[in-house]
Task: structure prediction
Amino acid sequence: MSIRKHVMVAMVAASFGAILFGQREATAQSPAGASGRGAAVFTKRNMFGVSCGNSMAECKAFCSAACDILPSGGANCPRVPTSGEGLIAGDSSQLMSIAKALPNLKYVKVAAGAKATQEVVDGLKRLDGWLATSPDRAKYNYSIQVNNCWRDGVYDSKVECYFIMKDKNPQDLKLAWPGATPHSSGKACDLVLVDQAGKVATPSNACTADAKTSSRVDFKTASKLLDEALTNDVVGAQRLNYEAWHFEWGGAVRADDCRCKAPECQEKFWPPSCTPAGCRAH
Result:
């Protein structure tokens, strides 16, 4: 990873902490200027639902109405909309516990508390069945770890708004514009391949061909295995072409939508760049 990317990662990580601290601090104090401010409204659309737009000007106006920067340096965003097209609420009947819905998975491991829609649950069940008969899975003796699927859209918008209000373009930090996402709309999962020793071979946020892991399976081979397991016609997922860990169910694969399937993911989009280029990420 380049020095610039190390700096970006450190900046994002530090700011995540500031945001979380700011949310706790907000319960003890009300930032100046918050009272009397109108509610933020998503006025645009992206491919998954509501959006603030796709420019700093549009989204800074939204974020200024939705959030406050606290004296601590954190952000409090109590006025980010919690409903709208592509924003599934955490208590929605559309969501279910993956572990409870699929208690007998053998080759797919699921993080505690992970939720998904029925469409995604069905896809993960097909994935486990496909892995059971895969010669490559048997050869490498790997499993697939589900880190998260559905994710509250408000959480992502808070992070993105923090940077926007600091005059930092979220896309320069490999983030999206605030609004509905594949995760908030219940279509996506972040997955990694885990080798027989329990080592992650496809690290999240790996953006270079030589990304280092402690696995004996090299990153490119592991990414290829993951693509083939998820995007075949049986399992039916598609991958975000610039992230090796992000897979979705539903929607056609189009060149301008940043999605791919094997073998195209490896042939045209290796290594993953972590940044959309010439296509619509959301």
